Amino acid sequence: MTAEKQINKLIKIIGCGKMASAILDAWLKKSVSPQNIYVDDPKPSEWLLEKKKQGLNINTNEDILFDYCFIGVKPQSLDEIKVKLKLLSKKNVTFVSMLAGIKINRIESIIGKDEAIVRIMPNLPAEILKGVTAIKENEMVNPKQSENLAILLEAFGETVKFSEEGKFDAVTAISGSGPAYIFLIAELMTEVGVNLGLSHDEAFKLVKHTIDGAGSLIVNSALGPQKLRENVTSPGGTTHEALVIMMNKENGLSKIFSSAIKAAAKRSKELSKV
Ligand SMILES: NC(=O)c1ccc[n+]([C@@H]2O[C@H](COP(=O)([O-])OP(=O)(O)OC[C@H]3O[C@@H](n4cnc5c(N)ncnc54)[C@H](OP(=O)(O)O)[C@@H]3O)[C@@H](O)[C@H]2O)c1
After folding, report:
1. Residues 6+ apart with CB under 8 A from 8
2. What residue spans define the domains of the chain?
3. Which of 75, 174, 183, 211 is the most exposed, fewest CB within 10 Å of its CB?
4. What is the 186 CA–ligand 1 centroid distance (Å)?
5. At what angle do helices 18-30 and 46-53 cross, to 10 degrees?
């Protein structure tokens, strides 16, 4: 564990699959002692089982007074854990739901409107501490709970706080699903590299470090993506030749990205009504 922002809060995780395990891994590396964690999952992730085999000593006392309850089950399993959630009500617990498409008022209908409830939307790069997590708190979350939660969430990346829950459909379409769009770009660029005569390994190594390097430049440069792009595009050069096609108004990437991401946001809206 590094010494940065340690947090001494007791956390229950209900449902510790892929996403919650990525979060737990980050906490163990950065800010939370295993003795502060209790996991409630009849069949947790392979990662957690392996960690336990290696001697990870998380808390096994279900009856302690938890400060935070992270809900990491699939949205369709929410009804199965209603009773467990209800048992934690009126105990000054902050409930943190990562369930895609499940609105705060649905959680309130289970545990009560007077409970502190936070909806978050993390994303997969949390696994390597480079996630970005959207946050929406209900009115019952007090400043101290909010401050400690920020430390917990910043253990695995950046955070963006929202005052309107309605923006979560856009968030889901941008940062929730976003890593998959970049994975697709990596696949396509590798495929084209192979078609141009590179071996798969050569193409993939070039592609993955290009995406990593370009991503780091976007994050670390004072210039925005448009300026960065313009700076590497000489008139009549090779990049220009590709961008003319990619930026074609009729059938270029702008149109494809716009309709694809709007479709994801629409689907998120539909799922939250189910
Ligand atoms: N993966 C992502 O990139 C991502 C991003 C943002 C948000 N999320 C959200 O995170 C949540 C979890 O997603 P995931 O990909 O991590 O799914 P997952 O790997 O299937 O994890 C869910 C875990 O909950 C367990 N579970 C099911 N019923 C339970 C119960 N009654 N009590 C306790 N644990 C129970 C599951 O066990 P079984 O395997 O036995 O069912 C599984 O280990 C979802 O709500 C999703 O919307 C995921």
Report:
1. 33, 36
2. 11-163, 178-273
3. 183
4. 27
5. 40
- pTM for this structure? 0.90
**So what's the architecture of 11-163 in CATH?**
3-Layer(aba) Sandwich (3.40)
Chain segment 149-160, per-residue pLDDT in tens: 999 999 999 999
| Residue found under tokens 């808390």 | 59
Distance CA 37, CA 226 (A): 44
At 7, the amino acid letter reads I
pLDDT tens digits for range 91-146:
999 999 999 989 999 999 999 999 999 999 999 999 899 999 999 999 999 999 99
Q: Do the two domains 11-163 and 178-273 of this chain adopt the same fold? A: no
Residue range 208-239, pLDDT digits in tens: 999 999 999 999 999 999 999 999 999 999 99
User: Is 69 in contact with 16 (CB distance < 8 Å)?
Assistant: no
Residues 178-273, CATH architecture: Orthogonal Bundle (1.10)
CA-proximal residue: ligand 1, atom 5 (nearest): 123
DSSP state of 93: P
Protein residue whose Cα sits closest to atom 17 of ligand 1: 17
